Amino acid sequence: MPLYEHEQNWRELNKEEAGKVVTDTTLDLKGLLCPLPVLRANKALRKLPAGARVEVLATDPQAPKDFQAFCETAGHEFIESNEQDGTFTICFRKTSE
Hints:
3 helices
């Protein structure tokens, strides 16, 4: 297969994956209150490479806002936050080492 065709197939595969949130790490931080969820996530991030996607499970109602502020301050990409039955699922991507 010529290199160009291989590159084209790879790009198409990545386009298909682009709409999905792929999680590299899930942190269960339920039961912890501010600022502990952000502090624990920050500590876990040190072991992850740039580009890693992190999913945080938290029950602190302030957690989504805390993680948005954390991502803005630290330069990470905030992806989404959802709530179901009192548990918040917060996804973000580490963008720097």
